[in-house]
Write a structure and sequence with these properties.
The structure is a single chain. This protein has 548 residues and is α/β, with parallel strands linked by helices. 20% of the residues lie in helices and 32% in strands. Strands 20-19-18-17-16-15-14-21 form an eight-stranded parallel beta sheet. A five-stranded antiparallel beta sheet has the order 22-24-25-30-27, covered by helices on one side. Strand 15, helix 3 and strand 16 form a beta-alpha-beta unit. Helix 4 runs parallel beside helix 6 and helix 10 packs parallel to helix 11. It is globular, with a radius of gyration of 24 Å.
């Protein structure tokens, strides 16, 4: 740690990849004050025409092609201690003689200086521009500004489409048994019509994990339904030969969205290099789709395992579980010993009173921590976090029952509030009331109207007055409106008024639309207010804002 402030300047392309048909791109510049990373910073500079020093609050930056020296972003201003400043550029700047693009990531560099040019800063990055596909296969990329996923294929009319996945890991036996069963009451078509926009088949095992004939039929149905596929290689991701064989079957399908390699590699203590080795091999075969994995532990070799993925999932299961004593292994669970099914969780543990008051605190803490770790490790751009809500009951395991529908809704929306960009619950088929509530959530959160906010605007935590510390609220502003998501984490009905302030001290004009919730929220002087909340109540509202 430094005793003096440092200026941590980083930049990166907004999109994880561009296609050669795209005309414009943009860079994101972060310039934050830090005491752990960056270059020396003094809050003092000289400006022309001013006597004496003035605060160093604005930096001048330029971005250039490292190989040719061509200017991509001319000298521009960035505020000190800011994040997410965006600068556009022409992708044609990367062509060779104005015709073709390089077939490798291109290095770019940023130079930043104080107004008097005495303090200078330097940062490097790369940009990837891929040839447009000649088949009907898909391309998926990550928006590094807001964390969302975008897909481009014949299913999207060859346009980039943002997608918030809300769905399930899915039992392959259920898929295989219903795919050609005309008498099945629920199949892939009804799964899609329930609002789920992604499916994650769990492989039963073996070096060739799925029956190829049935799986090819499954993919064709997903293509026809625009049901996107998260392809799981949990049993085979350490076998490059198997990976090569499996990917060859997937390339031409527009429903392929992303790959999934390791399932809880930290919990299984897989080799620390395993996820990165498989990631590099997959990217060499298919640079058009991101790679994901699920971490089980709170922090066990996070750096090593997470470097093998573009997207990180967390599966924090705090419902109906003893977090201090293992009912399976009959041992205590603490920071160094024991397995209670939810690593480093404290739900309901009297030794951690805040986790007794808020039994969902393990979820929000885990999501927040995974983002904080990335800041500490100075990842070039944060990897999106997806959540895996608990939607199962294994008799004789750590968990004593299914979650209730209300608990399921809280687990999903709380994750949304803390920045996850996808939800894939474990596991389908599930209990009927959980199917109903997740269908409702998927229909709302995957809708274009909501995605416009959650994947197209910055997320801002909102201040809450009242609620006994158990109200979690978040907002996104776009097009003169704010989307507000409110979760009450208490199991008892709450008396008294609750008020939620809007982002940037904006004033509400009216509640324009209620996507979820029982209603009752009204416009107050400082935001939204409601008299009393029901147990585990959630609300997602679109609020028209007063003109500033």
């Amino acid at each position: 740690m430094s005793k003096q402030p440092l200026l941590d300047v980083r930049f990166y392309p907004r999109m994880s990849l561009y296609l050669d048909k795209d005309e414009k791109g943009s860079f994101i510049v972060d310039a934050t004050i830090s005491y752990s990373a960056g270059q020396p910073y003094s809050n003092s500079t000289f400006e022309q025409g001013r006597n004496g020093s003035v605060p160093f609050t604005t930096m001048n930056i330029t971005i250039m092609h490292s190989g040719t020296g061509k200017t991509l972003v001319p000298w521009s201003e960035v505020s000190i201690n800011s994040t997410g400043t965006e600068f556009s550029f022409d992708l044609s700047s990367f062509t060779n003689n104005g015709t073709t693009f390089p077939d490798h990531p291109v290095p770019v560099n940023l130079i930043g200086v104080s107004p008097d040019a005495i303090q200078s800063y330097y940062s490097v990055s790369t940009i990837t521009i891929l040839p447009s596909r000649k088949d009907v296969g898909s391309v998926a990329r990550i928006d590094r500004l807001y964390g969302g996923l975008q897909v481009h294929s014949s299913l999207t009319n060859q346009q980039w489409k943002p997608i918030f996945p809300y769905s399930f890991y899915t039992n392959w036996d259920w898929i295989a048994s219903t795919i050609n069963n005309s008498s099945a009451t629920y199949n892939l078509s009804s799964f899609r019509s329930s609002g789920y926009n992604l499916i994650h088949p769990v492989p039963p095992g073996g070096s060739d994990p799925f029956n190829r004939t049935i799986f090819e039929e499954f993919l064709k149905i997903c293509d026809s339904l625009e049901l996107y596929v998260m392809y799981d290689m949990r049993h085979t991701y350490k076998n490059n030969t198997s990976i090569t064989n499996q990917l060859s079957l997937l390339q031409n399908h527009p429903s392929l969205l992303l790959y999934y390699t390791a399932d809880e590699p930290d919990g299984w203590c897989d080799p620390l290099s395993a996820t990165k080795t498989s990631y590099d091999h997959i990217r060499s075969l298919d640079p058009y789709h991101p790679v994901s994995l699920c971490l089980n532990c709170a922090n066990f070799y996070f750096d090593e395992y997470s470097r093998g993925a573009d997207i990180l999932l967390e599966d924090t299961y705090p419902i109906a579980v003893n977090t201090s004593f293992s009912t399976v292994y009959h041992t205590p669970c603490n920071t160094t010993y024991g397995d209670c099914g939810c690593d480093n969780c404290h739900a309901g543990d009297p030794a951690y009173p805040s986790y007794v008051k808020n039994r969902f605190l393990d979820i929000s803490t885990r999501v927040d921590d995974l983002q904080t770790y990335q800041e500490w490790l100075r990842f070039d751009a944060k990897k999106p976090i997806w959540g895996v809500p608990q939607s199962f009951f294994d008799r004789g395991s750590f968990w004593q029952r299914f979650p209730t529908a209300e608990e399921e809704a809280v687990m999903g929306v709380l994750r949304l509030n803390h920045g996850v960009k996808g939800i894939v619950a474990w596991i389908f088929p599930t209990e009927e009331s959980l199917k109903e509530i997740t269908s409702s959530l998927a229909t709302v959160l995957a809708s274009d109207e909501v995605v416009r906010f959650t994947l197209g605007a910055p997320r801002m935590g909102l201040q809450v007055r009242g609620g006994n510390g158990l109200v979690d609220a978040t907002g996104w502003i776009a097009d003169g409106c704010v989307l507000v998501s409110i979760v009450y984490l208490g199991y008892e009905d709450l008396d008294g008024e609750v008020e939620v302030s809007l982002p940037q001290d904006r004033k509400p004009a009216a509640v324009e639309k209620a996507f979820l919730g029982t209603g009752g929220w009204t416009s107050g002087e400082k935001g939204l207010k409601k008299d009393g909340l029901k147990s585990l109540e959630i609300s997602i509202l679109k609020i028209a804002l007063q003109e500033s």
